[in-house]
Specification:
The complex is a heterodimer of chains A (491) and B (494). Chain A has 491 residues and is an alpha/beta fold. Chain A contains 15 helices and eleven strands. In chain A, helix 9 packs across helix 11.
Chain lengths: 491, 494
């Protein structure tokens, strides 16, 4: 019998429908895989009882003929999603012991479609990080190694990509604020998809930067991403920034036909000091799309170089306010000082509860919103953000999609960048601009570097045109023929 | 009108502006579905959003928006079809989110005007700079436990309108009149119940002093005043303090102060130097609030007649004096009572409205208010309903009882809550108009008072009053005075 954990979602869906396998069998295989995955530290909470219960319900549903694409599919959930009665801390110490009384809309959508929850996945604390080294629960390892050297899985959705790349989940929910889906997907040879801002509800997602946070899936194929996205997306009256427009059939967009489509290549994404093999991969991607009948158009996104500084003003500003609620009063960690005052409790709780990176961003955010600095930083950043959005708007009048590298490097070793925040922030240089503009984007595994580590290509689309992103991604996937798998060293 | 604070070195005038926080009358909070009833047990009206649980998001309550728009329309203000919610960031135990959602740069309502009636036909316009919507905080309770502070989040997230006046107020009386008038308007349109004692309306007062002709002085803000009396007193006390300070060579420091009504003084709460940096920025969880003209017009269509318009109508159409009309319209409950009373009286007496309007107004502002005041009651808990009042007045109109008997009947009605007809019947107070019966009494009285009769006939005309009085006395006041006069004179003159 085949190793059930190696199946793609689309394959499992068909086998479940045909009665070749049961959801219970599929789930049990994955529970075992999760148990064998401890060395990577991807799961910070396992929920096998819930998984088996959901699997049985899924089997009944399949029998009744009411299954959807996600019915019976075992997935992992990023710890940022509130899951009723289950560990939810966004991998922060400050939410110590927190188990919500409610379910996030995105995960509820998945459970409503019959998906199976394997557990909660490790991540950078409050999604702040690009290597999953800031988690209170410790770093996540990338299944892909540089020879014998462990590498980071990228971040912040490190647990999501690691579990999917390492066959410990068929898919995983992730979230993208400045690249937290796409960059780690690129580092792990997985497919990551971030929809248009407003496509998924943020209700029940622990907030990092509200105007940027957006849910999305990590999967092992473009088709799987489309299937999972279908379930996650949709308007939610409980999130006024979610938008009430029809969700298209994403899987139906995978026609493989991009003839006549115009693909933009932004000149500003040729970055100094970028490894040659990334540039080379990009050129390969361009050639693949051309071969498939697309027209390649050189475009300019002139404000690209301001995107990273703009992001590192807007996101920390919102974060500094969003994280104000973690004060030790209502839930989570509380550190008291003998004979101390209320401010003493705040200080002790927040000092003990937040990690270094989170503190750094709270301080940056507090600074840029302060009286006297607001206009120079926050307000100016908002204006630049608009200019960046305008760049894309102008470009998308000429092209249907944009192709770029996902990240400026492959996965790196632990500690390589964690002492240098600026070097770490540069990881998101290609993903941040589309986040600021609220646009949909993906990372498609496209090749390996000289060390045998995966590299991804990023496809960006117009607002609400996820279908084109999926379509182009699938063509790239097909052309790249990426079939490499990490060597299983953990069990 | 001016209010002068006399100092040792000269006279000072005061400059005052007010911020009124009015709780929006709505069944649920500004950004959550929780109930808002007053007096519920602690933490029984708290949603996940109000408690700022991780991942929770605010969703705007359209009813609160509608009420803010109606309030703006009621003071003739500019309605901003696009406004923005901002976060005001600070830490406090009863502020679960770590920020209050408010409106900073772009409020929902722009400039408007409130017209004050300062008596003797004098009015004064007070500019309203803006009205914005914001969330209330919870309540910290420091008196429940020797070591701990308890937090009640029932109020957390309740919708408030902050109504900010221009610094147009120049006397403590104007400040009191302004708060009274704003409260009256809010109650007329039902956007706030105006109950200051329950905390659903409270005022912050900004006070500064200056010598005549000088520019504005430095202001101090006195926070959280929960009665109109305290508004007036705190201004008087604070103005005096500032004048004394200046005359002693000191400088007024911009700061927030609290009014202590027991000691009759204001105390510094925090100075501008200690003031928090609230780091306002647009709330990224909420899109800008936008609505169209149709929404505004629909809100306008639900506005009732407002006090100024009602007053004009009472004077012009009902012939009431400006003063009486002003008294009647000052509180919506009174005006409503009056209009029900008048309608019922017209129906019961079949008389023209204008002919009974003044009588109804006089009874209401005289007899009923007098009795209510004496009993320490308000119009809301009057034992005599408008319908019962109309019944009473109709009995005077059709001659069943005299005005004097009516007062007696009213007293019983007020005590027992019984209807006028019932009281008249029970006490046998029905006016006697039977000429035969009255004639017999008159004859008896003339016969019993030969001296007075002789004097009358000797030219002392005024003694007719004596005979009328005797007849009324003999009938216990029930004789119809018109009939008595008509019958008495020919008999005396005979």
């Amino acid at each position: 019998m085949t190793d059930l954990t190696k199946l793609k979602i689309a394959e499992a869906r068909d086998m479940l429908a045909n009665g070749d396998i049961t959801a219970r069998e599929l789930t049990k295989a994955h529970i075992a895989a999760v148990d064998g995955f401890d060395a990577l530290n991807a799961y910070i909470a396992k929920t096998p009882e819930i998984a088996l219960k959901q699997a049985d319900a899924a089997d009944a549903r399949i029998k009744a003929g009411t299954a959807t694409g996600m019915t019976g599919i075992p997935i992992g959930v990023k710890d940022l999603y509130c899951t009723k009665g289950v560990h939810t801390q966004a991998c922060s110490h400050i939410l110590d012991g927190f188990k919500p009384e409610y379910e996030s809309t995105v995960t509820q959508n998945l459970w409503d479609d019959g998906a199976v929850m394997l557990g909660k996945l490790n991540m950078d604390e409050f999604a702040m990080g690009s290597s999953n080294e800031t988690s209170f629960y410790g770093p996540v390892k990338n299944p892909w190694r540089k020879g014998e050297i462990d590498t980071v899985p990228g971040g912040s959705s490190g647990g999501s990509v690691s579990s999917v790349a390492g066959f410990a989940a068929m898919g995983a929910t992730a979230s993208d604020t400045g690249g937290s889906i796409r960059q780690p997907a690129s580092f792990t040879g997985t497919f990551g998809f971030k929809p248009t801002y407003g496509r998924c509800s943020r209700y029940g997602m622990v907030a990092f930067a509200s105007s940027l946070d957006q849910a999305g899936p990590i999967t092992r194929s473009v088709r799987d991403g489309a299937i999972m996205m279908q379930s996650m997306a949709g308007f939610d009256p409980k999130d006024t920034t979610s938008v009430d427009i029809a969700v298209p059939d994403f899987e139906a967009a995978l026609t493989g036909d991009i003839r006549g489509m115009k693909i933009g290549i932004p000149k500003e994404y040729h970055m100094d000091g970028m490894p040659e093999e990334i540039e080379a991969l990009w050129q390969k991607g361009i050639a693949w799309l051309k071969d498939a009948g697309a027209e390649i158009v050189n475009i300019s996104l002139p404000h690209t170089k301001y995107a990273l500084p703009t992001y590192y003003i807007v996101a920390p500003a919102e974060a500094s306010s969003n994280l104000g609620r973690y004060d030790g009063v209502k839930y989570g960690l509380r550190e008291t000082v003998q004979g101390g005052s209320l401010p003493d409790m705040y200080e002790a709780t927040r000092a003990a509860g937040f990690g270094e990176e989170v503190k750094r961003r709270i301080m940056i955010g507090t600074y840029v919103l302060s009286a006297g600095y607001y206009d120079a930083y926050y307000l100016k950043a908002q204006k630049v953000r608009q200019l960046i959005a305008n760049d894309f708007k102008a470009a998308f009048e000429k092209v249907d999609a944009i192709l770029t590298p996902t990240a400026p490097s492959a996965a790196f070793a632990f500690g390589e960048k964690s002492d240098d925040p600026l070097a770490m922030y540069l990881n998101d240089v290609f993903t941040v601009p589309a986040s600021l503009a609220g646009l949909p984007g993906s990372s498609v595994p496209a090749g390996l570097d000289k060390d045998g580590l995966p590299l991804g290509l990023q496809v960006l689309g117009k607002a609400w045109d996820e279908e084109t992103v999926f379509k182009v991604s699938a063509v790239l996937e097909e052309a790249a023929g990426f079939i490499a798998e990490p060597k299983i060293w953990w069990r | 009108m001016t209010y002068i604070v006399h100092g040792a070195t000269g006279d000072f005038e005061i400059v005052v502006g007010l911020e009124i926080h009015a709780q929006v009358s709505s069944n649920s909070k500004l950004f959550s579905g929780s109930a808002t009833a007053f007096g519920a047990d602690p933490n029984t009206q708290v949603s996940l959003v109000d408690a700022a649980m991780p991942g929770m998001l605010p969703t705007i309550n359209a009813e609160c928006v509608r009420q803010a728009v109606r309030t703006g329309l009621a003071i003739g203000a500019v309605i901003n079809k696009r406004s923005v919610f901002d976060r005001k960031n600070y830490f406090y135990a009863d502020l679960p989110q770590g920020y209050q959602i408010s409106q900073f740069k772009d409020p929902i309502v722009g400039p408007g005007v409130v017209t004050l009636d300062m008596g003797d036909g004098v009015t004064k316009d007070i500019g309203v700079e803006r009205i914005h919507l914001e969330q209330d905080a919870g309540k910290s309770m420091h008196d429940q436990h020797p070591q701990y502070t308890y937090v009640d989040l029932n109020r957390s997230g309740v919708a408030l309108m902050e109504i900010v006046s221009d610094p147009d107020i120049r006397t403590p009386e104007e400040a009191a009149a302004y708060v009274t008038k704003v409260r009256s308007i809010l109650r007329y349109i039902g956007s706030c119940d105006g109950n200051m004692d329950q905390g659903s309306m409270r005022a912050d007062v900004n006070v500064s002093v200056r010598r005549a002709g000088e520019p504005y002085g430095t202001r101090c803000e006195i926070k959280n005043l929960n009665s109109i009396k305290f508004v007036r007193q705190s201004i008087e006390v604070e103005a005096r303090r500032q004048v004394d300070l200046i005359e002693d060579g000191g400088t007024v420091v911009q700061e927030t102060r609290l009014f202590d009504p027991v000691k009759g003084e204001t105390r510094s709460l925090r100075s501008k130097e200690d003031a928090q940096d609230y780091r306002y920025f647009p709330d990224p969880d909420l899109l800008p609030l936008e609505f169209d003209d149709a929404f505004i017009e629909a809100a306008r269509a639900t506005l009732p007649e407002l006090p100024d318009a009602k007053r004009t109508r009472f004077v012009e159409e009902l012939g009431l004096s400006d003063y009486t009309a002003g008294v009647l319209v000052a509180e919506k409950a009174q005006a409503d009572f009056y209009e029900v009373l008048l309608d019922a009286l017209v129906t019961a007496s079949k008389k023209d409205m204008a002919s009974v309007a003044s009588k109804a107004a006089n009874w209401l502002t005289g007899d009923l208010y007098g009795a209510l005041n004496k009993a320490g009651k308000s119009i809301a808990d009057t034992p005599v309903s408008a319908g019962q009042g109309a019944e009473l007045l109709a009995l005077i109109e059709d001659g069943t009882i005299s005005g004097r008997i009516a007062k007696e009947v009213f007293e019983v009605m007020f005590e027992t809550g019984k209807g006028a007809g019932v009281v008249v019947e029970e006490k046998g107070l029905k006016q006697v108009s039977d000429t035969g019966e009255i004639e017999a009494i008159i004859d008896g009285i003339i016969e019993a008072n030969p001296n007075q009769l002789a004097q009358y006939r000797g030219g002392k005309d005024k003694l007719i009053g004596f005979f009328v009085g005797q007849v009324m006395k003999a009938t216990g006041g029930k004789a119809n005075p018109g009939v008595v006069n008509k019958l008495l004179k020919p008999k005396l003159d005979a």
